[in-house]
Amino acid sequence: MKLAICSAPKGRPREFCVDEALAQALRVFWSKGYEGASLTDLTDAMGITRPSLYAAFGNKEALFRKALDLYEREKLCYMSQALDAPTARDVAERLLRGALEMQASDCEPRGCLRVISSVACGVEAESIRDEVIARRKSSMEALIKRFEQAEEAGELPDHMDAEGLAAYLGALLQGLSLQAGAGASREELERLVETSLAVWPTR
Amino acid sequence: MKLAICSAPKGRPREFCVDEALAQALRVFWSKGYEGASLTDLTDAMGITRPSLYAAFGNKEALFRKALDLYEREKLCYMSQALDAPTARDVAERLLRGALEMQASDCEPRGCLRVISSVACGVEAESIRDEVIARRKSSMEALIKRFEQAEEAGELPDHMDAEGLAAYLGALLQGLSLQAGAGASREELERLVETSLAVWPTR
DNA sequence: CAAGTTTCATAATGATCGGTATATAATCAC
DNA sequence: GTGATTATATACCGATCATTATGAAACTTG
């Protein structure tokens, strides 16, 4: 009994690489947002026709979710890695510098796909918005847990709580992404990061 | 020769109040963004028909600009007032608390119209986006100037520059607006503000 | 009253939106 | 070869987009 894993595909073979097409779709969503990206924008960038897109990815919303998965897997991996840093300050530094490096890249869109997908929008994008907000929430909860550890380890000043510090750092990261998306230079973003690190609270 | 100022209006009188209609339009743009707000959304909220809207405001883009003017005049006035505060720290406190009070209001949309209008978008909204970004830039330049004053007054730590501090505070305010727009509670926003003030750099 | 002017409501414009029906082309198993 | 299956390309679908043409209604002036 043969396993299905190596079964030869039936029918006409696909003429494009799904992963490459998805990467191109990600770039479009990243630079134009979910609503701003039309199917024409997407198919043009992906180099495929509309029926091919629908056959391979379902529909626009499903395509966005797959693109968002790819984005978080490839571009936001520094965020979960940062939590392994030894101190709360090191966590913050890794997050800020990671965001800076990503936003300062010249060959990729500016701004953060999560941030631009979580702002006000028309009705068609509300479920997308809700999902992105939920994903951010779980990221923030992980950050809060990490800062609670630091709190117990006595790293934080007495009057400072883990939730407040996480919301504070999250706001800085969101602002960094917004400013990058609005065209800030690398130097400006560096100044922002250095200032943030300079004021980071130590006990 | 009579002056035109007190001339009686000819023709059929307008049946709606332009200012009230503009205020309603602002609420729609504020909660849905420029692209997310359809003309049907707008005319429904304003209680007028499409031709009336075009006769009174020009077109969708001109209506948005007038709504943005109103927004900055009525909702963002605390920002310019904050610059009069005696110290850099007081400026920051007024800005953060002013943003908090505005975002915590229950009877108005959450988030900041400037922030949601400056993110990635489709082609039709690019000129809007550019204008909003330009307006924010001039606000930031005023903040930088105010912090340069503080720098000369010796208020800032030696290794800290006005531009970096302004970008830093601006990022916090942007993050605050984003989190408010994403549904953060007043308590969460308060914690964010208190943490920001607690870490504010003093010489 | 009638002429002139402006706003009103209705309905239509062409363009674009996301999504598909249809037919053809390329591969498989037999 | 034939039949089944899947991907391709073209063209189309109804819905919605911002904008406007049209004509009746409401007002001022003469």
Commentary on this structure:
Two copies of one chain form a homodimer. By secondary structure, the first copy, chain A, is mainly alpha-helical. Chain A has two domains: 18-68, Homeodomain-like (Arc Repressor Mutant, subunit A, Orthogonal Bundle), CATH 1.10.10; 76-198, Orthogonal Bundle (Tetracycline Repressor, domain 2). Chain A is built from ten helices and no strands. In chain A, helix 6 (88-103) runs antiparallel to helix 10 and helix 8 (126-152) packs across helix 9. Mean pLDDT of chain A is 95; it is low at 1-6. At the A-B interface, helix 1, helix 9 and helix 10 of A face helix 1, helix 9 and helix 10 of B. The structure holds a DNA duplex (30 and 30 nucleotides). Chains A, B: InterPro entries: DNA-bd_HTH_TetR-type_CS, Homeodomain-like_sf, HTH_TetR, Tet_transcr_reg_TetR-rel_C_sf, TetR_C. Chains A, B: GO terms for molecular function: DNA binding. Chains A, B: Keywords: DNA-binding, Transcription, Transcription regulation. Chains A, B: This is TetR/AcrR family transcriptional regulator.
Keywords:
homodimer; 203 residues; mainly alpha; Arc Repressor Mutant, subunit A; Tetracycline Repressor, domain 2; 2 domains; 10 helices; DNA-binding
